Amino acid sequence: MSQPPTPHIGLALGSGSARGWAHIGVIRALADAGIEPDIVCGTSIGALVGAAYVGGEFDPLETWVRGLRLQTVVSFLDFSLGSGLIKGDRLIEFFRSHFVDRDIGELARPFGAVATDLRRGREVWLREGRVTDAVRA
Q: What's the rounded Cα separation, in Å, for the pair 85 and 79?
């Protein structure tokens, strides 16, 4: 009798600004249970956390997030009247200079970021190019 196929596990991480840092705890809980996703996708802060995870920089990101103070969080807020309340440029620049900034194809496992094309009103999957460009979209 043949073995049943091994299931593939995908991890989808959502948006949520500062609440999105809770994804770190989710990933830790999965690891503690011996669950390792085959593919990781995310949008907004979920894409940032997911990129650090598949980029091998999860522990440094977690350490940095746990050390955040209100003043640091406020310093990353760059308000916008455009498509989103917070542009995110300051956070992405920090991420680019301190964490993953390489081609998505170089990551340890498949990764994708999801954005919205506001003109067409549909989702856009970013699965190639620079990690920070995909996360920022």
A: 6
